[in-house]
Amino acid sequence: MKDGLHFCSCDGRRIGDTMPYYHQGIYHLFYLLNGSGNVNVNIEHAWTEDLVHWHHAPTAVCREEGPEWMLDTGTIFTGSFLTENGLHHLWYTSWNPQNPNGREFIRHAVSEDLFSWRKLEDEVIAPLPHRYSSCQYRDFRDPCVIPDGKGGYIMFILANPPNVQKKNDFGTDGWLFGHLHSTDLVHWEQHEPVSAPFGDECPDYHCINGRHVLLSARKALQGDSQTGPYREIESGMDGPLTFAGKTVWDGKRHVWFGAWLGSALLVPREVFLQDDRIGMRMLPEIRRRFDQPVLEGESKERVVILPADTVCLLEVTISSSSLKKIYLKPASEKTAEIDAKHCRIRWGEDVNKPLHQAGEKMELQLIISQSFAELFIDRQTAFSFPLKNGLNSEWILHAPGAEMKWTLKTLNTVKG
Q1: What is the pTM of this model?
Q2: What is the radius of gyration, based on Cα positions, of the chain?
Q3: Is the pLDDT of residue 122 over 80?
């Protein structure tokens, strides 16, 4: 799906987990092509200076061929990046369910330029049995490494408690956030797990507005310190059909990158914290790409549009003294329902997620592409969902009892 807006994988495989890193004015996107199965997965690399024009780079870290007991002969999973004294560090997950010593280990690689990486063969982290489960099918992955502000470093991981002895490849038995600490980025002490109501994949720590925030594949937490205790907070981040995205600080805002809906990356968005709630909104760089007005108008209760054969942006302001429900219905597809009264978003029977408290006026921004739609509500909540044929198909927006003012814009492909 090359549409002039979304970054796409080279071979058409679905983009899965993302690992963004910002350095000297460049957004580096490290990502996995594990959306179509955990086979032949490496850490891929692309970069952009403006979040619009993307450049493919060589694969950053590759799996290896060899006997099943060797590390990295299965596949490679998510990690995180850190730069210290001019050297770039990557901690990543080595995953091989056939390895009798354990399916998951944490490994370390370094680079001088973020493009060429060297694995440090002697630096491998395995769980200590008295801290975390060390059985063959354990969870011990997705390292997130951050400075602790005292000259040391913290690593968060997904792990299981020591008493969990998993029998197979599946299940979330006793997921928790593991906690490791180092003073030199080489030797790691394994501590008690983080105090939190749950554990999840892809932990992603950020200090937002002076608050300790731990994001993960599916949820958001806020803590009293870097290592907790943490409590769950409301989140307007995209999901649950897209997950395992991560966020990076670019010096002025936190920018989120996510996928899992096809061979294309969703548009990057801003993540912010307001009133103990994580919000998500469209970036101005993305909105500026849509500067070709096609249609605009005002209607009562119902709008019918027919997108052209290029990516488009529908912006709608909906007003009502008693706004209850809004329905987004693409032809021959599932309906997305915004339940303003009960603060929920539904998509068929598959999704029922929280929505922020809405007022008498609601603003929608909907990016329509061929294979998925990206919905932003009141610049606070995001929800993306797959499409079979998003373009050249009729869309119906229905808001009973409401007045609507709307504009449909297409992508300026000359700028792309």
Answers
A1: 0.95
A2: 22
A3: yes
